[in-house]
Backbone:
């Protein structure tokens, strides 16, 4: 079963509501073993990334467009349903003692509000440590830590930088950053995919 068929079976109203509330959602076992190996070794990199891009973009673009509209951002075709051009993918390879500091990707995506991250190794088997973490910062509040539990083949949809939140005084932007905790042993392999519009 391809990515598109797998995604078509999901409840996107529920997933969208979870993204609205938390800024992330995990889709378990999205990648099969052959897809994981092809991405990890680079043998199927362009085709695999393009397939992920084609399957996810039409489902995420309406959410991105709604978030941008809610936050009063100019569309610039970013997250506009039916407008699709490019994505940027990278492989992260972290060994024992390495981590990925907290960051956001808002400046790199031309306004597309969501991105993908995937885990290509099995926690506890291929590596230990290396948890995927996010922080959420609301105005005049302390940062809230979020630990996103991922297994081999899971794909998470996350906010690249901000999501809208309805508060007592109206709508405001919640800022989110993400990173990877220190790997204690082995090697952690992951994929990050940005939609550029």
Residues:
């Amino acid at each position: 079963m391809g990515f598109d068929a797998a995604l078509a079976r999901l409840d996107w109203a529920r997933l969208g509501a979870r993204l609205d509330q938390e800024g992330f959602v995990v889709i378990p076992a999205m990648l099969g073993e052959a897809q994981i190996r092809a991405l990890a070794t680079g043998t199927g990199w362009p085709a695999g990334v393009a397939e992920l891009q084609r399957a996810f973009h039409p489902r995420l673009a309406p959410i991105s467009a709604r978030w941008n509209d809610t936050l009063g951002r100019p569309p610039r075709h970013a997250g506009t349903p039916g407008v699709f051009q490019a994505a940027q993918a990278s492989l992260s390879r972290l060994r024992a003692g390495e981590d990925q500091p907290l960051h956001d990707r808002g400046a790199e995506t031309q306004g597309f509000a969501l991105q993908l991250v995937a885990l290509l190794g099995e926690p506890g088997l291929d590596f230990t440590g290396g948890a995927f973490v996010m922080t959420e910062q609301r105005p005049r509040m302390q940062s809230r830590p979020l630990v996103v539990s991922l297994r081999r083949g899971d794909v998470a949809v996350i906010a690249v930088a901000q999501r809208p939140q309805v508060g007592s005084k109206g709508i405001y932007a919640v800022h989110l950053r993400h990173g990877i905790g220190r790997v204690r042993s082995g090697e952690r392999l992951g994929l990050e995919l940005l939609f550029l519009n």
